[in-house]
Amino acid sequence: MTVKLLLYILVMALTTYLIRMLPFTLFRKKIKNPFLKSFFYYIPYAVLGAMTIPWIFYSTGSFVGAAAGTVCAFVLAYFERSLIVVALSSCAVAYVTQLIFSLT
Q1: Please, are residues 33 and 39 in contact by the beta-carbon 8 Å criterion?
Q2: How far is CA 90 from CA 4, 22, 38, 45, in A?
Q3: Which residue, 16, 55, 72, 95, could crosslink 90 as a Cys pair with Cβ 3.0–4.6 Å?
Q4: DSSP letter string over 46-64?
Q5: Residue pLDDT, tens place only, 74-96
Q6: Quick check: pTM over 0.70?
Q7: Are 76 and 86 spatial neighbours (Cβ–Cβ below 8 Å)?
Q8: Rounded Cα–Cα distance for residues 102 and 96 (Å)
């Protein structure tokens, strides 16, 4: 291995360690501020949405099919259907929409 590769690995290991270690060292007391508590509560959902939503539109060959599947997923999630129902239904809607638009 070259020195450059070892340096890259060391920097990434240090970065990963700092990301995991800093919250433990900075927040020793229990967080009582309601704004911070709600902020930290919603971070996982915001990050998951930011990582997932853009790739939904690149996952299919058709933007229209992806958009139809996304709308279906949002509607079913709004009506509090189970995760498996939302996932399977949105996939089916995206597939059928792509079939319809590929025939025209």
Answers
A1: no
A2: 46, 39, 30, 20
A3: 72
A4: HHHHHHHHHHHTTSSS-HH
A5: 999 999 999 999 999 999 999 99
A6: no
A7: yes
A8: 10
